[in-house]
Amino acid sequence: MHFHEKPNTYVTNVELKVSDLHRSLRYYQEVIGFQILQQETYKATLTADGQTALLTIVQPESVEEKVGQTTGLYHLALLLPSRRDLANIISHFHQKNVYFGASDHHVSEALYLNDPDGNGIEVYADRPEHEWLWHVNQVHMVTEPLHIHSILAEGDGRWNGLPANTVMGHIHLSVSNLADAEQFYTKGLGFDIVTRYGTQALFISTGRYHHHIGLNTWQSANAPKLGEHQVGLKAVSLRLNDEEQATTMKANLRAIGAPVVEVDGGFQTEDPAGNVVLLKFY
Hints:
8-stranded mixed beta sheet, 5 helices
């Protein structure tokens, strides 16, 4: 899990807008396995270890359904500590009759679901780092069928919710223009490109992780940004390493015309597709 520690820049928390907070809380607790860290009338913070906020869900006062193609969340991705944990959650999904998709990406083995509002969720386990294939600075990733029976053979049937050391492994965003997004995340925030999928998808990271952020235009090329009250992504939080990094990022963001707004514990910006990004020290 060293890819999700300083000095890397990585996702710490994702904030989602939902249409029914109580319905979403049931789903994220009973199906995904989160615990409630803090709850208010229209907002709840969810955790795996009882201390660290990984997911925040809010119900806007005048909530609207997402209509048509927009930018925003493609999926958030929860990284489990081990393949055994992945086996146990697969067994749990089977017991709950939960439908999920599945893919082998070579660097990882992944399951895909949608929450009650259609927000995409990936639950995955990484293969050992030494098994990843790098071609200079590009990591080999594929999308192939997942060998679920092979994974299940490693399970012990002990599913008691998300393991305590689950982290937000990455976030995958829908953007309107890939070149604009590339400039923002690489020149503005300092991420490295680790994989390109043609002209429609880009994967970026720090510290040679296979990706901390995915960007694509598969369903969102030239699309408008998500409405303020529409269900979907509200903000994604990334961890800052130190003041020097923050100062450099702010200067780089301003140089490419991106907004920079000071907030408690860091600053806020917005990518060209309208996705709000919080940079915090935590």
